[in-house]
């Protein structure tokens, strides 16, 4: 069975292709359009489809729209209450109802009758519970801003079938609460929530008691959220205003309370299901600080978060859900590298057309390890691009973690706030030497780990102000090229870690194709571009 998944209603439009239960391709529209998050999450944009991503997924598999058995659309307009008081919600719903016709226009040859609506949170659940890298049953927790009429789902997968055990109705929403705070702190809502999470480490949660009054689990798998008058706690910040301690205190207070409520929900879910494994998705599941508390303090033995846990991942989850419903159990997600890739010959043709000097070293991994040991910043472009918001060693900026100044240096390269941390990549077999508390292996950079005290002064660039780091472990069997970089760097420095952050500049999507890589390299103060088997030097 050939199923194309589509996410389009809110933000991060994406497409994913599942063939005979196996994930073949997945990509976000922003990587093609070069528009961050693809579009803004307003009703007027709900008609916009991930046309380029969908066409690429089909072309990658050698399929035409008419070859598809089903299209899974990750939103069900029939679930939206007719009396919604959300401004222009009727417009969003009408666009969703007409999605089959819009898709048939965007993908000529597609039969609109094969389009199936999958509830938003069911699609989120499928993206993690059906794609998880282990056999057997699991619990699933979904939390985000909103779907059709809710913001949360708790359930259980048994035999690839989802049983919904709890669902929280709007207006109560942990995700929308965090979005409101993000906006009050001067950042872009539905985009910059990770900045609030980073900011929360810079002050104590001085308003925690008040947050406990406004945000509370109800003991039955749900929660309540009542409006908070943010202005009484911290002055509303403009996008260019200074970030003050009172802003950090407010961020910390909300962050800690969200963690506490999530822990309450997880404990309730475990008590009901008795399962060993928890899978999570939804935008709130991108909060790696909360994920670590769930892993370290919660009752589940294993916790797995899908790397495209936000709305982009619902394209994959909707496709997997439809395939499973038709009797095709999903194969585990093979990795996050589900996007576009180029052969070395194709990369070289880009370099020739750009009329740029390049080298072809005997081993690009060794050449990069040498450059990093010399404290060069390296733009790294290898293999198929990542699905989801994290750079995971395919479209990355790499640097030496041994110099504290490289934190400020990379934030300047990317043009972003100085309180933002950068992350370590580490060989999986050595991760326990340096990091504790979070799960190991941790290949998708979705948990924080405590840095062992004896290593904090050795890798200061990647140690956050609270002594943690958002770790990505590298398995040589899965990522042999990056493993060779880490091994080569360790041989030269004694440190099995390199800095990894996304290959982009502020406000731009991650680099995706070779032209994007050359443009980024040409416009940012980066020393080396390692692209395919080639090296370009500043």
Labels describing this entry:
18 helices, five-stranded mixed β-sheet, alpha/beta, 538 residues, 22 strands, seven-stranded mixed β-sheet, globular
Give the overall pLDDT as a whole number: 96
Q: Low-confidence parts, pLDDT < 50 over ≥5 residues?
A: none
Radius of gyration over all CA atoms, rounded: 22 Å
Residues in helix, % = 25-40%
Order of the strands making up the biggest sheet: 19-15-20-14-13-21-22
Q: Supply the helix-strand structural class.
A: alpha/beta
Task: Give the helices and strands, then pairings.
Blueprint: E1 2-7, E2 14-19, E3 22-28, H1 30-33, H2 51-61, E4 70-73, H3 89-97, H4 99-106, E5 115-117, H5 120-129, E6 138-143, E7 150-158, E8 161-169, H6 174-184, H7 193-199, H8 208-214, E9 215-217, E10 223-225, H9 245-273, E11 277-281, H10 288-297, E12 302-305, H11 313-325, H12 344-353, H13 364-373, E13 378-381, E14 395-399, H14 405-414, E15 423-427, H15 431-434, E16 435-436, E17 448-451, H16 453-456, E18 468-470, E19 472-474, H17 480-493, E20 497-502, H18 514-523, E21 528-531, E22 534-537
Parallel strand pairs: 1-4, 4-5, 6-11, 11-12, 13-21, 15-19
Antiparallel strand pairs: 1-2, 2-3, 6-7, 7-8, 9-10, 13-14, 14-20, 15-20, 16-17, 17-18, 21-22
């Amino acid at each position: 069975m050939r199923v194309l998944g589509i996410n389009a209603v809110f933000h991060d439009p994406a497409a994913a292709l599942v063939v005979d239960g196996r994930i073949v391709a997945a990509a976000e529209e922003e990587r093609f359009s070069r528009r961050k998050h693809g579009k803004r999450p307003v009703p007027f944009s709900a008609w916009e489809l991930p046309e380029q991503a969908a066409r690429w997924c089909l072309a990658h598999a050698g399929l035409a729209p008419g070859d598809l058995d089903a299209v899974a659309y990750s939103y069900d307009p029939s679930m939206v209450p007719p009396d919604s008081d959300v401004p222009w919600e009727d417009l969003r719903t009408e666009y969703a109802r007409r999605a089959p016709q819009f898709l048939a226009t965007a993908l000529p040859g597609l039969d609109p009758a094969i389009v199936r609506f999958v509830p938003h949170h069911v699609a989120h659940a499928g993206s993690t519970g059906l794609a998880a890298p282990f056999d057997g049953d699991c619990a699933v927790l979904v939390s985000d801003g909103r779907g059709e009429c809710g913001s949360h789902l708790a359930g259980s997968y048994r035999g690839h079938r989802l049983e919904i055990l709890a669902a929280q109705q709007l207006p109560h929403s942990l995700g929308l609460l965090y979005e409101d705070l993000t906006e009050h702190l001067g950042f872009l809502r539905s985009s910059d929530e990770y900045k609030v999470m980073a900011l929360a480490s810079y002050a104590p949660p001085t308003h925690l008691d008040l947050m406990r009054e406004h945000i509370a689990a109800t003991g039955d798998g749900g929660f309540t959220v009542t409006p908070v008058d943010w202005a009484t706690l911290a002055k509303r910040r403009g996008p260019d205003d200074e970030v003050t301690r009172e802003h950090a205190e407010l961020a910390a207070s909300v962050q800690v309370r969200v963690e506490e409520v999530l822990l309450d929900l997880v404990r309730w879910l475990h008590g009901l299901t008795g399962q060993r494994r928890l899978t999570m998705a939804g935008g709130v599941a991108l909060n790696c600080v909360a994920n670590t508390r769930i892993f370290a303090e919660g009752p589940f033995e294993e916790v797995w978060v899908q790397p495209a846990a936000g709305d982009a991942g619902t394209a994959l989850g909707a496709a997997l859900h439809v395939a499973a419903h038709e009797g095709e159990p999903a194969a585990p997600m093979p990795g996050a590298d589900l996007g576009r890739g180029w052969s070395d010959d194709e990369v070289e043709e880009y370099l020739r057309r750009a009329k740029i000097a390049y080298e072809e070293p005997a081993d690009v991994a060794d050449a990069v390890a040498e450059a990093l040991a010399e404290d060069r910043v390296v733009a790294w472009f290898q293999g198929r691009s990542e699905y989801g918001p994290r750079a995971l060693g395919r479209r990355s900026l790499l640097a030496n973690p041994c110099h504290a100044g490289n934190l400020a240096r990379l934030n300047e390269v990317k043009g972003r706030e100085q309180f933002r941390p950068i992350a370590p990549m580490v060989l999986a077999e050595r991760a326990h030497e340096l990091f504790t508390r979070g799960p190991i292996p941790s290949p998708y950079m979705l948990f924080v780990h405590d840095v062992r005290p004896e290593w904090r002064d050795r890798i200061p660039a990647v140690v956050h102000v609270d002594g943690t780091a958002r770790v990505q472990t590298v398995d040589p069997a899965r990522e042999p090229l990056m493993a060779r970089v880490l091994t080569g760097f360790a041989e030269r420095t004694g440190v099995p870690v390199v800095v990894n952050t996304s290959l982009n500049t502020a406000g731009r999507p991650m680099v995706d194709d070779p032209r994007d890589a050359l443009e980024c390299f040409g416009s940012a103060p980066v020393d080396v571009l390692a692209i395919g088997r080639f090296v370009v030097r500043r």
